[in-house]
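Table S2 (continued). Query chain:
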Amino acid sequence: MAAVLLEPGSRLLHIGPHKTGTTAIQGALHLARERLAAEGVVYPGRGRQPLWPVLAVTGQPALLGGPRPEISYWDSLVRDVRAAGDQRVVLSSEFFAEADDATARRVIADLGGARVHVVVTLRSLARIRRRNGSNICKMASISGIWNGWKEYSASRRRHRRRVSGAVTGMTPWSPAGPPRTARKTSPSSCSTNQTG
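Corresponding output:
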């Protein structure tokens, strides 16, 4: 497959969703931050992903019951993206997948409108369900809270509907602008040891 080179000033926005290889992608981008910069590509922030800014703009609470991040985190990230000018920028967070229509439009506008290319990674729903089940047990043992099960379960049902929508292109991100570069990727297609 031939490489795709986005035009200078492009913003590549990887929106996940959860359990589709996002941690691996973010880890690779984080470790390659200096090499990317040498090639004119900015991966903004200091951590593996811009968690607090994305939680702030999507209106999601902090993980494990922490305080809701303030929108100033998002505003700061947007300033960093705009400061990149004609460099290419890559942003990755599975928490973008939880955005509603208005938030998706805001994110696209804030990051540069027509400059933004949205990327969705895909994995079979059966694999996502298995991964979610193990994560529910881990989170419950970490936080010691089983009472949030119903709320978490409901959020996962909403998430599965969004993942299903992503497969058909009916996510809130679709109407944000005309498609320019579309490429479906699955984590298994990145490994020579697995079959897709």
